[in-house]
Every structure is written in C-alpha cells, then in structure tokens.
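Tutorial, part two.
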Amino acid sequence: MSNCLSSQATVTAASPTIFVVDDDASFRTAIARLLHAGGYAVQTFASATDFLGSFRGDTPGCVLLDVHMPGLTGLDLQSALARGENPLPIVFITGQGDIPTSVQAMRAGAEDFLTKPLRKAVLFPAITRALARDAQERQQRARRRELRARFEALTPREREVLTHVLRGQLNKQIASDLAASERTIKAHRANLMAKLQVQSVAELGQLAHEAGFASQQ
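Running the prediction step on this input gives:
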C-alpha cells in the first residue's frame, strides 16, 4: 500500500514531487523526513506496482527508486516509465554495490545510482539534477507537441506539397510532379508556410526536423 507523506492540499499541479519507491518502510520514513526538511514534496510507495497504480504521467518530479524489490524490480519500473509519454528521471538507490546493474540502469537513462546509506551531500545534488532534467525534457516535449499540432493542421495536399518543398524542389518542379498549375502550388506553399509560422525554406526544414515530420516521409 502506498504511503503518501505530502499534503495534496498544499502541493499544486505544477510542483515537482519526489516519488520514493522502496520496500523498506523504515527507509521510506527516514528519507521522506530528510526530503521534507529540504523543502521537497514527497510521496512514498512500498512497491513499483503501487507507484504505477497511482502515478499520473503529467506530474513533474523524479523517482528515488530502490533497485531490488519483490515483484517488479527497479529496472522493471524504469522500463515501464520509459514507455510512457512523460517518463520521469530516476535516481536509483541500493543497499548492495552491484556494478552490472548500475551500468544497465545508467545506460537506460538513469540520472544517478547511489548506495545506501544516503548522504544528503550526495542525494540532494542528484535530485537537483534530476528535477532540472525533468523540467527541460517537459519543455522539449511541449515544444514537439505544439509543432506537431501545426503540421496536423495542414491539408493532405499541403502535406504533399511540403514533402516536395523539403526535397528542395521549386514550384515549377512540384507542379509538374503533382500535375497541378504552378499558381496552385504557390498558393499551397504560401498557406503551409503561414500555418507552420515560418518565413524561409531553411526555417521550414528545421521545424520539420524538430517535429519529426521529415523522418515520417
């Protein structure tokens, strides 16, 4: 059963939360006290299953995660979060020095891998880095969603013209390929540039790359 130690009434939706997932009850209590004293909002969970059952993907923060737990392990939870739309950065913790596991965790994107007992001088900087990474990645995901929305606003014909523009073709060449008049292609091109909010082909190419449009063609 999860043990939520933060007051939901005082934590706004935008407040980052430290999610502690560890099957050791005494450790959860001690680390929650330490994090609360440091000014962090904290929620604790006794298992990866409990965490997954209550976690909302849009909540900012990071996960302080035990490696070895009954049922789903820390590495299992890392994989599950990576498959979501808003994966949280993970700071792994373990009571055992396990180099192969730490290498696997770091290769899979963990922010850090710490050994118990945790020292504040080591833990807090790791959490600071994880929260900064989470904020940056959320900004990047929001940017990609906004860009995708622009591309999704294009008509099928405008998308078709866009594909040719990204290949470096001129209006006359596109018109020939699509069996359309050059005036029509020019109009489609102007419309798609306006919808995508770009002024040049170079800017258009950069935007398409950011949105992942180019890779879909």
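The CA atoms of residues 155 and 192 lie 9 Å apart. In part three we will examine how such features are distributed along the chain.
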